Amino acid sequence: MPAPENGGTFSDRHTIVFHRTLNAPLGRAWQALTTKADLDQWFMVTEIDLRTGGRYSFERGWDGWIGDLEPMRCIQFNTSDNSYTRFEIEPDGNGKTRLTLTDRLKSDLAVPPHIGAEGGVDAETSRYQPGGPGTHWAGAASGWHCFADGIVAHLDGRPLLIDFPALCHGYAEYLSERWSEPSAGR
Q1: Three-class SS state of 33
Q2: Cα(164)–Cα(186) distance, rounded to whole angstroms?
Q3: Could you give the CA distance from residue 97 to residue 107 in angstroms, rounded to a whole number?
Q4: Could you tell me which residues come within 8 angstroms of residue 168 by beta carbon, excluding any fewer than 6 positions away?
Q5: Fewest Cβ atoms nearer than 10 Å: which of 1, 28, 127, 173?
Q6: Is 143 inside a domain boundary?
Q7: 170 falls within a domain
């Protein structure tokens, strides 16, 4: 089974990558990625000290420091467990912006124990991690998918319309097949 439509791809065992085209010029896309007012709308409630090494805090206890910051190009959110989330943007030449969202997990990360049922999806499905420690579980992959689509919707000025349970079940099937393939352990 292929990834859900517009789904993430894996650059390696621990890293999922999403690509989107944002219907906004580079400056507006950068603003959406780096200002509290925008992040609170499409991402998570945020506290951010926008500088390399500056601290950030997102709702649900996710916090750390900005590991890389190149204005109008990239911002990377590092965590104390050596995981990170990175947003990279570049103009597409037509007044829009290309976004690459990369989420990398530490190699031994198991689904955190506080993760349970999410968004109308039972805990067994949302916590499903068929690749084992260090790989994305269905709920995490679905969440990043929603955030990638969320910034698109935010910049388009429309609500995000996603069937999270269907997306999560789709990722559960996709990840199960992906990690059962002999070459998936690379």
Answers
A1: helix
A2: 29
A3: 31
A4: 118, 119, 121, 125, 126, 138, 139, 142
A5: 1
A6: yes
A7: yes
How far is it, in rounded angstroms, from Cα 51 to Cα 55?
8
Residue type at 1 in one-letter notation: M
- Give the domain extent around 72: 9-179
Phi and psi angles of residue 18, each rounded to the nearest 5 degrees, phi first: -120, 140
How confident is residue 185, by pLDDT bands cut at 50, 70 and 90?
Answer: low
Tens-place pLDDT, residues 38-96? 999 999 999 999 999 999 999 877 899 999 999 999 999 999 888 999 999 999 999 99
Give CA separation, 174 vs 10, 85, 137, 167, in Å: 12, 22, 11, 10
Three-state DSSP state, 21: strand
Cα–Cα distance, 48 to 40 (Å, whole number): 11
The structure tokens 């499903």 sit at 128
Give the CATH number, domain containing residue 26.
3.30.530.20
Beta bridge partners of 85: 77, 103
Domain count, the chain: 1
β pairing state of 46-48 and 84-91: unpaired
168 close to 125: Cβ distance less than 8 angstroms: yes
Quote the tokens at residue 158.
Answer: 């429309």
Instruction: Look at residue 185 and tell me if it is in a domain.
Output: no
Rounded Cα distance, 19 and 80, in Å: 26
